[in-house]
Amino acid sequence: MAVIFPLYFAVMAGVFINTIATDDYCDVKTCKIKGPHTMCTYTSSKPSATCKQVNKVGVTDEDIDTILTVHNKLRQKVASGKEYRGNPGPQPKAVSMPKLSWNKELANIGQRWANQCIYNHDACRDIDKFQVGQNIAQSYSSKENNSTIQNFIEDVWYDEVKNFDANKVDQPFEMQVETGHYTQIVWATTTEIGCGFIKYKDTAWHRSCMVCNYGPAGNIKNERMYEIAN
């Protein structure tokens, strides 16, 4: 059996900057607050030596279709009032929760971070258009790891909805460790996504890791997840 661990990233309000020169990632203005940009710190596009025996790097067109289809299906489920779980539930309908579209730049940055085989969040991944949120999941097993991209999205990240208090949807947002992946997935003002993926074997374990970057970032302190429909 594979063991799966998730990570999420929260964004604090009040540090948005409208113009970021991402032709030089080392000069991204918001990173002066957060820390060095991933593309500045890690200049090689190849997996790091930490990854050992690499079996797969990157996402295919089929993977991209899965990522978008699953995310948008789940967003629509919540927006239409068909998610009955919660603590308590059900989750309220949304006035608007647009479909996510693929952003290659977010995917490239996510892949660069995935290629480091460091199971944690990078310091900064922002681009010229917006600040960027992040969900990470990793699975490991003593045998060949069959965890799928759909498993990560549905069973690891979105499943946190069972812990989410539906009464908090239209309240000023406060991060909760047990629901941070779910709230990023259904954050209404997030419209773009790009993900990286790597599968490798270290000295003891077969590992798969997926990094998804979201823009504009969700999980923003004191903002609202989405507007509730009447």
Description of the molecule:
It is found in: Secreted. It comes from Trachymyrmex septentrionalis. This is Venom allergen 3. InterPro entries: Allrgn_V5/Tpx1_CS (IPR018244), CAP_dom (IPR014044), CAP_sf (IPR035940), CRISP-related (IPR001283), V5_allergen-like (IPR002413). This protein has helices at 31-34, 38-41, 61-79, 104-114, 149-157, 180-185, and strands spanning 3-8, 53-57, 101-102, 133-141, 192-201, 206-215. Helix 3 (61-79) packs parallel to helix 5 (149-157). Strands 1, 2, 3, 4, 5 and 6 form a 6-stranded mixed sheet that branches. Helices cover 23% and strands 18% of the residues. It has a single domain (30-215), classed as 3-Layer(aba) Sandwich (Pathogenesis-related Protein p14a), CATH 3.40.33. It has 230 residues and is α+β, with helices and mostly antiparallel strands. The model is unreliable at 11-22 (pLDDT under 50). It starts with a strand and ends in a 15-residue tail after the last strand.
